[in-house]
Specification:
32% strand, alpha+beta, nine-stranded mixed beta sheet
């Protein structure tokens, strides 16, 4: 199924690749240090900027922002539920799209539900955001059973997979009770000895060989790899594009 970002120029991918090369050493060092299973692991929840939309609208907002160097990033977030297939295994979950004000934080995440004791994700790129997707956040930190955004903090994102618990911001690192995250040459292994169910995330397209089937066949979702480079922390890329033009 096609994505409106398919037509972006190859220079975008090459520029992002250069940025990842710069940060790769630091991230690989962190990954190596975590091979025994880290107590403190990356977490994320619903945004701190809010503006719920449907998945397709938010994806279009990202495309419009990238195509117009003088445009305004129309902050948004949305998700579509479905099933991920990795080899012979299937996992329920969601694709979650987000765009912050100013465009400093945007992309698509794959969120998978784990009901067993462990899950191995074969990763294409260890530098891309990966961790545990938790429920409570800056939108409504008192509700640790559902994700909320800050624009509509009283309205939970019903149906969005998340792990019971809270984080002090929309992203960061913290202890997740009973959960370890172990890196190896084969990818990353999440071990769940506590919270059930556990929801884990990585950047869309980063799981080798994975496919996503949305619940509604008419919902347009990005093809694997189409948005995998549109992760967090690429504000420098936006600045480069604007200066060149």
């Amino acid at each position: 199924m096609g994505s409106p970002l398919r037509g972006k120029k190859m220079t975008l991918g090459r520029t992002i690749a250069r940025l990842f090369v710069v940060s790769a050493l630091c991230v690989v060092m962190l990954s190596t240090a975590s091979t025994s299973g880290a107590a403190t692991i990356p977490v994320r929840t619903g945004s701190a900027y809010g503006g719920n939309t449907d998945f397709g609208t938010c994806e279009s907002n990202i495309v419009n922002f990238l195509n117009d160097p003088n445009g305004i990033a129309s902050n948004c977030e949305g998700f579509v539920s479905g099933v991920f297939t990795i080899g012979a295994s299937t996992y329920t979950g969601d694709q979650f799209v987000f765009l912050s004000p100013g465009g400093t934080d945007f992309g698509v995440l794959d969120i998978l539900q784990l009901n067993g004791s462990s899950l191995v994700l074969p990763l294409a790129n260890f530098t891309l955001p990966t961790g545990v997707f938790v429920c409570g956040g800056s939108g409504d930190p008192d509700d640790t059973s559902a994700a909320h955004d800050s624009v509509n903090p009283d309205v939970p994102m019903t149906g969005l997979s998340c792990t019971s618990g809270a984080t002090t911001a929309f992203s960061g690192t913290q202890d997740v009770s009973g959960v370890t995250m172990t890196f190896s040459l084969n990818g990353v292994t999440f071990t769940n000895g506590g919270n059930l169910p556990l929801s884990v995330f990585t950047t869309d397209g980063n799981i080798l060989g994975a496919t996503f089937t949305p619940d509604a066949a008419t919902v347009a979702t990005p093809e694997p790899g189409t948005l995998m480079l549109l992760g967090t922390g690429i504000a420098a890329l936006v600045g480069l594009r604007r200066r060149k033009q």
